[in-house]
Design goal:
By secondary structure, this protein is an alpha/beta fold. The protein is built from five helices and nine strands, in the order E-H-E-E-H-E-H-E-E-E-E-E-H-H. A hairpin with a 7-residue loop joins strand 7 and strand 8. The model has no long low-confidence stretch (mean pLDDT 95).
């Protein structure tokens, strides 16, 4: 890994931690700096991105257009990181923030999509270094009501009947995932009290989603070892 081993992970609420993302990064030799926005940690200054090995932005119940000052700070950081060729992963809200940071439109979807489900990989995803080896359809967990258009130049990697844009890549090392593959038993235990009535994620569901998800996350973490492309 060239330069710093420090990955910044931005967490927005107590119950949506990094889950399997943390173990994938640790296995790749990363030093993880978990910043808790919900505990008043500041979004890093965009000038610091050149010293980072990677950036992960997690989910949360807030929306891109909410009146929260740190949302704009986060989009500025994301835009700078992409421009610097730093590996970037946005999950759920993080994917929406990434799309908005790169000029796409984020808006309310036709219906909330919550619970265990799947997405279908596109033809372009089959040759992608992160998604190419993944099963198709890819099992995942959904928990969102917003969606996004694709940023200019983005490659659509996954979708389903409910939402056309479920995953995209920009350049070689920037990924946005509307869905969750980072599920672990301990993570979904935190999610439980916050899920809508009648929605449950069981141990068997975690076992269904996590093997494929762990592979996706390991392959993403490995991108930090590649030479940086600052297009």
């Amino acid at each position: 890994m060239a330069g710093s081993h420090r990955w910044v992970v931005l967490q927005h609420v107590a119950h949506e931690g990094p889950g399997a993302i943390a173990s994938a990064l640790a296995a790749a030799g990363a030093r993880i700096d978990l910043l808790r926005i919900d505990r008043s940690d500041a979004v890093p200054h965009p000038a610091t991105v050149s010293a980072l090995a990677g950036l992960v932005v997690l989910g949360g119940p807030m929306g891109v257009h909410d009146d929260l000052p740190w949302l704009e700070d986060e989009r500025i950081l994301l835009r700078e990181a992409v421009g610097a060729g730093v590996p970037v992963l946005g999950v759920c809200l993080g994917a929406q923030q990434l799309a908005a940071a790169l000029g796409a439109d984020v808006h309310r979807g036709p219906t909330a999509e919550v619970g265990v489900g799947e997405v279908h990989l596109t033809r372009e995803a089959l040759g992608d270094p992160v998604f190419g080896p993944a099963p198709n359809p890819l099992p995942c967990v959904h928990w969102h009501a917003d969606t996004f258009t694709l940023p200019d130049g983005a490659v659509r990697l996954a979708g389903n009947e409910a939402y056309e844009n479920q995953a995209f890549r920009v350049g070689a090392r920037t990924y946005g995932l509307q869905f969750h593959v980072e599920v672990t038993a301990s993570l979904v235990a935190y999610w439980g009290p916050h899920l809508p009535p009648g929605v449950f994620i069981r141990t068997v569901d975690v076992a269904h989603v996590s093997p494929a998800g762990e592979g996706v996350l390991r392959r993403f973490a490995a991108l930090a070892r590649a030479p940086r492309d600052t297009r």
